Prior knowledge:
- It is a single chain.
- The protein is α/β, with parallel strands linked by helices.
- The protein has one domain (3-233): NAD(P)-binding Rossmann-like Domain (Rossmann fold, 3-Layer(aba) Sandwich).
- The protein is built from six helices and eight strands.
- The protein has helices spanning 12-23, 35-45, 57-69, 96-121, 155-174, 205-216, and strands at residues 3-6, 27-32, 48-51, 75-78, 128-132, 179-183, 226-229, 232-233.
- An eight-stranded mixed β-sheet has the order 3-2-1-4-5-6-7-8, with helices on both faces.
- Helix 1 links the parallel strand 1 (3-6) and strand 2 (27-32).
- The chain is globular, with a radius of gyration of 16 Å.
- The two termini are 33 Å apart.
Amino acid sequence: xxxxxxxxxxxxxxxxxxxxxxxxxxxxxxxxxxxxxxxxxxxxxxxxxxxxxxxxxxxxxxxxxxxxxxxxxxxxxxxxxxxxxxxxxxxxxxxxxxxxxxxxxxxxxxxxxxxxxxxxxxxxxxxxxxxxxxxxxxxxxxxxxxxxxxxxxxxxxxxxxxxxxxxxxxxxxxxxxxxxxxxxxxxxxxxxxxxxxxxxxxxxxxxxxxxxxxxxxxxxxxxxxxxxxxxxxxxx
Length: 236
């Protein structure tokens, strides 16, 4: 039995990825900051719940103490992520505190959670870390005219996802016994940026979750240190 933790999994892409992995036989922990929402999501899809705020060291430590005491971990999906918009609902918020919050969640949060997870992952027979990234963090995609990322400005969020790319590469080099894979889930209709369910256009989260779940289920012979999307490997 494969045990998987997904951060930011009480809604959207994280929740749909959890649903798919449960259908494929994983034991899944729904990680969420809000205990009430997290438990409700976990109960709905047949998952376990763990309170987890990726920006809080104590919360992260307590979450992995719980997971370790309940049997261990094979797969970590670093899904939690945010974007910040200005108070009037306009463009991207680029004031210092907003940008720091984006980077703390999207990039530093991955390191914070991964470091706490590694002792458990190293005990697994097939340890995998999937970092949910974005083509907006791909230097190739943002320079390729055929890609939507090339015409969508995203200073803070895009830069934070570029950091996710390097975090993935460097962990793959530093911890070769664990597979590290960055995934572009596609343009997805989510509440990213703080709006309602329809505030961010794109395909249903259940469709985008397919590629995340596929890489969370990768076998022992799978790659490490790569950036993947629906169509295959994506240029960094």
